[in-house]
Amino acid sequence: MLALLGDRVNALRIPWLGRRIEASAGAEGRVWSRVVRAVMRAPALAAVVSAGVLLLAAVPVLGLETGLTGVRDLPDRFPAKQGFVLLEEEFGVGTADSVEVVVSGDVGSPELRAAVSELARRIGADGAFRNPEVSTSDDGQLAIVEARVAGDSRDQRSLAAVQRLRTEVVPDVLDGVAATALVTGETAEVIDYRELAGTWLPIVFAFVLLLSFVLLTVAFRSIVLAAVAIGLNLLSVGAAYGLLVLVFLDGVGRGLLGFTEVEVIAAWLPLFLFAVLFGLSMDYTVFMLSRIRERATKGSSTKDAVAYAVGSTARLITGAALIIIAVFVGFAAGDQVEFQQMGFGVAVSLLIDATVVRLVLLPAVLALLGERTWYLPGWLEWLPHLEVEGQRDGPVSR
Prior knowledge:
It is a single chain. The chain is of the alpha+beta class. The chain has two domains: 251 residues, Multidrug efflux transporter AcrB transmembrane fold; 107 residues, 2-Layer Sandwich (Alpha-Beta Plaits). Helix content is 61%, strand content 11%. It has 13 helices and eight strands. The strands form three sheets. It has a four-stranded antiparallel beta sheet. A two-stranded parallel sheet has the order 1-6. A two-stranded antiparallel sheet has the order 7-8. A hairpin with a 2-residue loop joins β7 and β8. The longest helix is centred in the middle third of the chain and has 35 residues. The protein is elongated and about 90 Å long.
């Protein structure tokens, strides 16, 4: 399309702004440069204050509780929610989900038959379950104790009850009996999914961080710059996690923002947010660091290179961030609480990344490091030189 349009691509201009935008395209933005130079006049103060704010925002993540939202978390105006409330009030069971305990063994033996009966009795005595029923297979090798889950099968009460069934009730009843038992059902699946996501989360974190560090070190020939980029991206992601907990679980500003009150953060969200946010943040970081290195290799000091890079990329990075923020604000404005959490998490993280991190924290840290920013151990001198040449239309790697 650009080849077909040629110079006519600039034929239409925004009234009053078009010529100014065209004149400043690719140039160093004076406003952004002024901001970053002010930051670098007191880099220690700027770094401490901005990092402190992000760490403070990340503190609530210590209270992160994950799970999956259920019918109870739907808005009250939804017919499904109204039907759930009516069923729960009249029958004590709002969903059709059940918990199943599958017992494998010689069900016909007196010991196991008595154990299965005791298991059904214990489940029936627990207020979290309703109407346990026992069925056996034709060959007499399996017995299933099934009961409805009271209320919402995904709420914290149901999760705790099924967890208790797995860890306390079933082992206690079958102690000394020649049989094995497994607990399944919708609620058990939520528990398993949450544990699976929790198991893989640190593994994915470690893999992404290590690979990013290696690639950044090769690209910029500096282990310090690679470590700084990763550390600052983690700060913005951590702040997004903390604000999610603060708003959705602790309720700070939830009513003002119109979000639904919930007990948990969606179990899939931490891993999803990390992948998306770290990728987007690293994209902006590499774009700006390329400009910094480009200027530094031409003889500029690190401070001057940072001021130039921020001034010449801030408009582009901020514009790109605002577009993505606008998209995810749409998700946050929806009715489904899991999408509200996703939209809010992405939007607030990118806002932090494009403002606090890019305009304040990164310039302040690099100003404090000075020429140590480009440190590369002697035993890594064999790394290839990936030169970055600056042109008015942007950096070109070769």
